[in-house]
Amino acid sequence: MANIFNKWKEGLAKSSKAAFGQIATILGASEITPDIWDDLEALLIQADLGVETTDIVLDALEQRVDKEGITRASDLRAALREELRKQLTHPPELDFSARPTVILVVGVNGSGKTTSIAKLGKRFRQQGKSVLLGAADTFRAAAVDQLEIWAQRLDLPVISGQMGGDSAAVAYDTVQAAQSRKTDVALIDTAGRLHTRYNLMEELKKVHRVVGKALPGAPHHVWLVMDATTGQNALPQAKAFKDAVKVTGVILAKLDSSAHGGMAFAIQRELGLPILFAGLGEKPDDLQPFDPDGFVDGILAELQGK
Ligand SMILES: Nc1nc2c(ncn2[C@@H]2O[C@H](COP(=O)(O)OP(=O)(O)OP(=O)(O)O)[C@@H](O)[C@H]2O)c(=O)[nH]1
Ligand SMILES: [Mg+2]
Predict the structure, then answer these.
(1) CA distances (Å), 205 to each of 125, 172, 208, in order?
(2) Is residue 2 over pLDDT 80?
(3) Can you tell me the distance from the alpha carbon of 302 to that of 15, in angstroms, rounded to the nearest whole number?
(4) Nearest ligand 1 atom, CA 279
(5) At what angle do helices 167-180 and 198-214 cross, to 10 degrees?
(6) Cα(173)–Cα(139) distance, integer angstroms
(7) Do you find a cis peptide bond into 284, omega within 30 degrees of 0?
(8) Are 275 and 268 in contact (CB under 8 A)?
(9) Contacts by 26-34 with C-beta closer than 8 Å and gap 24+?
(10) Which ligand is located closest to the Cα atom of residue 230?
(11) How would DSSP label each residue in 51-82?
(12) Model pLDDT for residues 65-81, shown as the tens digit of each residue
């Protein structure tokens, strides 16, 4: 466990040093002054918590200051940790009862889909599941190669299509192959697309439909990969994907590159989607199931150090 908590701490070092680090400085003051509330508000918003979550957390803190008679700024730290933690939920247990369980992975360009699929493939296989990858990103040159290289490195089978070919057909073939090979989990990669591009979003809907034709009930999960460095702009993007293909959960990639880890709060509150996994680095083992305690301790690491 210690090792996993360290991963969160290391992965969130940028966030904890940026906005959350400044919070540590503010809460190092001796007295709670009205300025503290303004500063806290600005910093939480800057950390990408979103206005709603920021208001909820600050209201709860102010109430606690009244009720519990907290007068020292330093005593606010523990209360802040608790209130932030309350805003996050553990990811639900993933349902793998269907065989194959088909997982469609979607998102905007460069968010981390292909890398996350490789990491998930490794994780699921380590759990004793058989895995098949589907390289249904036929749009970008080298996309199929990228997944094939990962597959080779991790020794995972992959179904690929032709560059420029029909992405839905590759998705269909992947599901069929997973059925005939009695594979436990099929992970289907899709091309990155901007949520505002009508044709590309229609194509994604088609991939979703075709997967359902190959196997009724599939895809069983649709995971949206979000880039944690994108900030609040990622929210309208995510809403568009959610509307188009019934997203069931989020993979928050590149948390390690982001100074705005607060995105996790906004995603849960404003999208109502669970965060299933978080990307804490580029190596295969750097994708971790989302852990609210590890996350909150990670972003507040500077606070605890003081
Ligand atoms: N530091 C860090 N880098 C990541 C993480 N996840 C992905 N990346 C990097 O982000 C870049 C883009 O990742 P891809 O997996 O190719 O993203 P994609 O969504 O498949 O991209 P497109 O297929 O072009 O839409 C690569 O350089 C990855 O190594 C992460 O959790 N942390
Ligand atoms: Mg990709």
Answers:
(1) 28, 13, 5
(2) no
(3) 10
(4) 31
(5) 20
(6) 17
(7) no
(8) yes
(9) 26/73, 27/73, 27/74, 27/76, 27/77, 27/80, 27/303, 27/306, 28/73, 28/74, 28/306, 29/73, 30/72, 30/73, 30/74, 31/71, 31/72, 31/73, 32/65, 32/70, 32/71, 32/72, 32/73, 32/76
(10) 1
(11) HHHHHHHHHHHHHHHHHHT--BGGGHHHHHHH
(12) 999 998 888 888 889 99
Other C-beta atoms closer than 10 Å to the C-beta of 284 total 17
Give all domains of the chain, ordered by start, each with its CATH number.
2-90+299-305 (1.20.120.140), 101-290 (3.40.50.300)
d(CA 81, CA 94): 27
Query: Residue 23 pLDDT more than 60?
Result: yes
**Which residues, other chains included, contact 67 with Cβ-Cβ below 8 Å and sequence gap of 6+?**
none
Give residue 26 CA to ligand 2 midpoint distance, Å.
41
Position 134, amino acid: G
Q: How much is the pLDDT for 28?
A: 79
Nearest CA, atom 1, ligand 1: 281
Q: Are β-strands 185-189 and 131-135 bridged in parallel, bridged antiparallel, or unpaired?
A: parallel
Residue 83 to residue 296: CA distance in whole angstroms: 10
Percentage of the chain exceeding pLDDT 90 = 72
Name residues contacting ligand 1 (CB within 6 A): 107, 109-115, 137, 140, 143, 192, 225, 253-254, 256-257, 279, 281-282, 286
Q: Which residues contact 25 (CB under 8 A, 6 or more apart)?
A: none
CA of 40 to the centre of ligand 1 (A): 32
Q: Which tens digits make up the pLDDT trace of 248-297?
A: 999 999 999 998 889 899 999 999 999 999 999 988 889 999 999 999 99
Measured from the Cβ of residue 26, the count of other Cβ atoms closer than 10 Å reads 18
The structure's pTM equals: 0.95
Residues 6 or more apart in contact with residue 143 via CB below 8 angstroms = 114, 135, 137, 163, 189, 191
Distance between Cα 139 and ligand 2 center (Å):
10
